[in-house]
Write the structure tokens for this entry.
Amino acid sequence: MSIEALLGSRHLPYLIAEIGINHNGNIEVAKELILQAKQSGFDAVKFQKRTVNIVYSEEELCAPRDSVFGKTNGDLKRGLEFGRDEYEEIDEFCERNGIPWSASPWDLESLDFLLGFNVPFVKIASASLTNSSLLKATADSKIPTILSTGMSSLHQIEKAISFFDRANLCLLHTVSTYPAKNNELNLAVIETLRNRFSLPIGYSGHEVGVLPSIIAFAKYGAVIIERHVTLNRAMWGSDQAASLEPQGMVRLVQYIQEAIESFGSPDKKILDSELPIMKKLRKVQDF
């Protein structure tokens, strides 16, 4: 499958609900978020997959950090990480509810893990854009790949692109702050990336509201919109504040559909619905 086949011939952007680690290590929370995404009209859900002992150094894992899982950063990272049993349950749950899932692999072992499932794509997180071994292995797998470009220069993005068959690649503009401020979103970069790299470009938003995501699609033509989602922004966790709650998920899909309806036709003509108004209001018609 190519990126073009994944996106299909559609006017709507491909909508990804980024569950990430907002499940807080609880499979039932993950399932509820999957259901919310499906019911809201999203096309796919996405998680994050890490091999904790590979991604983080021993020093990072031993660093003190209080959480519901223990007293160290390692306790937290391991507590948030789903393993095979949970992902097999997610895989079955998503299939039963008619919504595909995938994840961002942060290391080669996690990539192999994901490729063992029938995921329709993988996403390379912004933090991994300069990880040559991960980029090469992902490209070699031939799976459609979504590459997030936060914290990256145009030179670094160009280097990352060079690993891939371009037919298998889509870029996402994003700003890697959580939550992101509107005056730092720089949505016009979507156009810069499209013009520079001649690839399909999407948007991964970390802002609180939905308007920038609508603008990314309606003004700049983002073909993918990815948003972090949560059941409640007040839940504990580093990404919750940068996520859409269920009502925000519904609003995003609704506004995108309304935008498409409003685009209409480029042909300028007098509408049938205008005729009675014209008859009533136009007093002089010399031509």
Q: What stands out?
A: The radius of gyration is 21 Å.
